[in-house]
Specification:
The strands form two sheets. This protein has a nine-stranded mixed β-sheet, with helices on both faces. The chain has a four-stranded mixed β-sheet with strand order 3-2-6-7. It is built from nine helices and 13 strands. The protein is an alpha/beta fold. The structure holds adenosine-5'-triphosphate and magnesium ion (MG).
Length: 310
């Protein structure tokens, strides 16, 4: 079962300000805000949901290819994907655009000031699901609004079951949009915040949504996750974590575990645990594509956590 992972590609530039923003942003002067933060530490990471999920699925040995739009500045990311052996067959360069990018400045209180430039991502609808061959499983993850809508329609029209994973894209959609996605999708995946927004906007509870699809998956950070299928609820424990480094991208690592389970016909108790361990491994590393393991290492850690092997 080969997965087509539709979603964003982005560079994340992370800078750390060794002080507190509050000492430099003076409340009585915000009408003429003009501040410059000296940031000796700077990291540029490969990110974006489709990029991250494809990376994690590759680690697991799953089958799939990402689909997304990128800019002329994509060369270093492309080299990285080639090194990993992740397919670039369904990436499209949008001329005159930059790859989507986030500039994140963090201070010592963990406050963040972020600027996000969508760039090429806003043209994601220029890719069509039908451009890809041998797709048996789909994912619609955060991307340009039009792209998410059209890719969902295209999966549904082609009879390819897909997971709807709105993530940070959630605010772009109203109740009607979201209900349409539910109607088209076979699986829904949210974190707990997105799940509550989903219930508010669609006017349906998670249990009601679960009646309309094969499963609804809700992740809850260190509290583990829940899989709702019909009238059944699977409670998936979190896996143990060595050192907490960076929660960014745990959701994407988890999604790759879900795709892997679906591809390999694993039941939800096992699929959820694979996904859960992926999130736990990811959180031990800064950035979203800096963790790694062999299948044997994964399996032995899986056994330590859950008492059986894959
Ligand atoms: N502190 C933690 N300990 C163990 N596992 C964790 C922890 N945080 C996250 N995970 C794993 O990763 C999964 C996804 O995390 P989370 O619910 O935070 O997703 P998210 O909010 O979508 O994250 P993001 O969007 O930042 O990638 C969790 O369900 C869990 O399995
Ligand atoms: Mg998320």
């Amino acid at each position: 079962m080969s997965a087509l992972i539709c979603g964003s590609f982005a560079y994340d530039t992370i800078m750390v300000f060794q002080d507190q923003f509050k000492k430099h942003i003076l409340p009585d002067q915000v009408h003429i805000l003009n501040v410059s933060f000296l940031v000796p530490d700077l990291r540029r990471e490969f990110g974006g949901c489709a990029g991250n999920i494809a990376y994690n699925l590759k680690l697991l040995g799953g089958e799939g290819a990402p689909m997304g739009t990128v800019g002329a500045d994509f060369i270093p990311y492309a080299d990285w994907m080639d090194e990993l052996g992740v397919s670039r067959d369904y990436l499209k360069e949008i001329y005159g655009s930059y790859t989507a990018q986030a500039y994140i400045t963090t201070d010592q209180d963990d406050n963040q000031i972020t600027a996000f430039h969508p760039g090429a991502m806003n043209f994601s609808h220029e890719n069509k699901v039908s451009d890809a061959s041998d797709v048996t499983l789909g994912l619609v993850s955060p991307d340009g609004r039009q792209g998410m809508i059209e890719h969902a329609e295209q999966f549904a029209a082609a009879g390819i079951p897909f997971m709807f994973d709105p993530g940070q894209g959630m605010p772009m959609f109203d109740g009607d949009d979201l209900n349409r996605f539910v109607h088209q999708a076979s699986w829904l995946a949210f974190n707990d915040y997105e799940a509550s927004l989903m219930q508010e906007r669609t006017g349906k509870t998670i249990e009601q949504l679960a009646q309309e699809v094969r499963a609804v998956i809700v992740t809850r950070g260190g509290e583990g996750s829940l899989v709702y299928t019909g009238d059944k609820l699977h409670e998936i424990p979190a896996a143990s974590v060595g050192q907490l480094q960076d929660p960014t991208g745990c959701g994407d690592a988890y999604r790759a575990g879900l795709l892997y389970g679906l591809q390999n016909n694993l039941d939800w108790e096992v699929t959820g645990r694979v996904a859960s361990l992926m999130g736990a491994i990811k959180i031990e590393h800064a950035g979203t594509q800096n963790h790694g393991f062999t299948f044997d290492e994964f399996n032995s850690r899986f056994k330590e956590n859950f008492g059986f092997i894959l």
